[in-house]
């Protein structure tokens, strides 16, 4: 049982690090930054044991890192499974509040 609990704690820690690393990517449209963001988004989509705050992340990325966001949106194919993420819209203030609450609970 404790192995399961420690595994969940580790997964929460990894998810928190992943979310923080997304927001550490420079707001530049370089191919390396685009690749890193795509890798991180794919990783978030593969998380099974926790529900990552993808909506909040995408809303804040659009607001805080517009060059990276739009360059990545244009770099992915229209048939990509990531396309749907770039159609998410919402209030950045509310997204920031919800993301902060989520990270504090991890």
Quick structural gist:
This protein has 106 residues and is mainly alpha-helical.
Topology:
Layout lengths: L1 H21 L8 H16 L7 H11 L1 H10 L16 H14 L1
Helix pairs in contact: 1-2, 2-4, 3-4, 3-5
Number of strands: 0
Structural domain count = 1
Average pLDDT rating: 96
Low-confidence segments, given as residue ranges, are: none
What proportion of the residues form beta strands (DSSP E)? under 5%
Helical residues, percent:
55-70%
Task: Spell out the helices and strands N to C.
Answer: HHHHH
Kindly name the structural category. mainly alpha
Distance separating the two termini: 19 Å
What count of helical segments does DSSP give? 5
How would you describe the overall organization of this protein?
68% of the residues lie in helices and 0% in strands. The two termini are 19 Å apart. It has five helices and no strands. The chain has one domain. With 106 residues, the chain is mainly alpha-helical. It is globular and about 45 Å long.
């Amino acid at each position: 049982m404790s192995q399961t609990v420690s595994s969940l704690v580790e997964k929460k820690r990894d998810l928190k690090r992943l979310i923080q690393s997304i927001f550490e990517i420079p707001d530049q449209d370089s191919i390396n930054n685009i690749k890193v963001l795509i890798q991180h988004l794919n990783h978030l989509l593969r998380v099974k044991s926790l529900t990552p705050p993808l909506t909040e992340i995408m809303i804040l990325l659009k607001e805080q890192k517009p060059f990276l966001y739009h360059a990545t949106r244009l770099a992915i194919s229209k048939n990509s499974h990531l396309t749907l993420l770039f159609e998410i819209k919402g209030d950045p203030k509310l997204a920031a509040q919800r993301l902060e609450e989520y990270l504090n609970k991890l």
